[in-house]
Amino acid sequence: MNLVTPGIGLIFWTTIVFLLLLFLLSKYAWKPILSAIKTREKGIEDALAAAENAKKEMQELKSANEAILAEARAERDAMLKEARDTKDSIINEAKTKATKEAERIMTSTREQIANEKNAAIAELKNQVATLSIEIAEKILKSELSSDEKQKALVSNLMKDVNLN
Amino acid sequence: MLSKINIFKHNKVALYAIFVWFSFSSLSVMASEPQEMEPTTAEQHAPGHGAEADGEKSVDITKVAFEHILDSHSWHLWGEGHDAVAIPLPVIIYSNTNGLKIFSSAKFEHGHASYEGYSLEEEHIVSENPAETIYDFSITKNVAQMLISMLVLFMIFISIANAYKKQGVTTAPKGKQSFFEPLILFVRDDIAKNNIGGHNYERFVPYLLTVFFLILINNVFGMLPIGANLTGNIAFTMALSVVTLIVTNVNGNGHYWHHIFMPPAPKALWLILIPIEIVGIFTKPFALMIRLFANMTAGHIIIISLVGLIFVFKTVVASVVAVPFALFIDVLECLVAVLQAYIFTMLTALFIGTACADHNGDGVHNEDDEKLETAHH
């Protein structure tokens, strides 16, 4: 077998072995290996993309959270303000109501007092009149109890009267 | 201090001596065969150097070297002549008169005997009948190594494929997987994707992987002490190159053929250019064939020549130069084994890439062609 003369036997066997290797390795080794590697590469790529997405989403979520928080804070402030206003208005209303009521009570009390006073005065007047009449009756009775007295009286009255 | 250094030196020298002695004894035994086969040369030497005849024998380094790099009908392990330990391999021959014949190469008794009219002359099977033409399809040493490497490749890669199937792609590769995955990715990304490109490179990845690993494993096996020089055999590289030639041209697109039969040049030059382009189809795989064969063979010849220096000069002193140089070349061969597998695969991918590149693809080569074409029109 010469160095640069290709032997037909080895060419024949090389071709057979190579084709056999190509066919069997392609089917049972390269195909599963390459597809597995590809799947893994795709998996890594997807995972990286997913991580990036998650990061972005996280960022978005964070800003959304902040917005919500700010909103909530504003709402709380508004609620507090409203509550304070309501409280103030309630207090004021109550105050006015109370003042009015007090005034009303005072007025009615004053009226009542005035009425009572008037009634009392009227009664007093009546009593004074009755007493005066009684006193006058008694005095008259005593003055006109005897004839001398009636005569004295008439004389007395007669003295005052100037017969003109 | 001094004694320590001395001991150290002695150890080194002793190791060195043992190493040299081993290589010397093995090669000198090897050398005995040529003498038995060619008694005339031995006799010519014998009378002049009587003392050498029983101890040291002259060595035909060229013959030894060629025995190492060429194919053989038996797998020689060690020893020489009648002490040789070799595995006889099956001989399969087809002759125009006797048809198919299968028998063991042991029948030839290392070329000393003939069997059924056939005899072995320098590893060629010759018939006593001059009218008989023999086609030798024997399982030679190279074929046997190729079959072994095929089984090894099956075992490695099918077990790796099973590991991927079993563990899925969620776990990190381990063991064999982690060693071979970078190589597979290298072939896919740096060889196939870079040189073929486009979207159809994936079709060629299994082919390129098979070529790469078949050459790589046989380059490595060829470097083992009893390994066969398969990748340094021109028949092997020729078969692979022919496959590359077929794959390249079967996948050649319109642009590729247009470039060959209607080159982008003035019509007057077509008479010269078309034959050149047609020859170019064959020179590319031819260069592939020669490159791998020559690189691997040259490496083996250099190593055996360096070791052979010791026997040519017939002095152990030569080993001071020969052994370190042989070691250096051996280490270099490790690099070459990987490099040549890479180059063969890479050039195959490059040829396929130029043959099936998209007409409006991303290759610079195509853009240049189009510019030339428009200039021509």
Explained architecture:
- The complex is a heterodimer of chains A (164) and B (377).
- Chain A has 164 residues and is mainly α.
- In chain A, 91% of the residues lie in helices and 0% in strands.
- Chain A has two helices and no strands.
- Chain A starts with 7 loop residues before the first helix and ends with a helix.
- The mean pLDDT of chain A is 90.
- Chain B has three domains: 64 residues, no CATH class; 47 residues, no CATH class; 236 residues, no CATH class.
- In chain B, helix 1 packs across helix 10.
Note the topology:
The complex is a heterodimer of chains A (164) and B (377).
Chain A: H1 8-143, H2 147-160
Chain B: H1 2-37, H2 39-48, H3 50-54, H4 61-69, E1 74-78, E2 85-88, E3 90-95, E4 99-104, E5 114-115, E6 118-121, E7 124-127, E8 134-136, H5 141-167, H6 176-195, H7 205-223, H8 234-250, H9 254-261, H10 270-313, H11 318-356, H12 364-376
Antiparallel strand pairs in B: 1-2, 3-4, 3-8, 5-6, 6-7
Q: Secondary-structure element order of chain A, as H and E?
A: HH
Determine the fraction of residues in helical runs of chain A and give it as a percent range. over 70%
Number of domains of chain B: 3
Poorly predicted spans of chain B: 1-10, 12-56, 361-377
Give the biggest beta sheet of chain B.
3 strands, antiparallel
> What percent of residues of chain B adopt helix (DSSP H or I)?
55-70%
State the total count of DSSP E strands of chain A: 0
Name the structural class of chain A: mainly alpha
Low-confidence stretches of chain A: none
Helix/strand/pairing category of chain B: mainly alpha
Give the mean pLDDT of chain A: 90
Specify the biggest β-sheet of chain A.
Answer: none
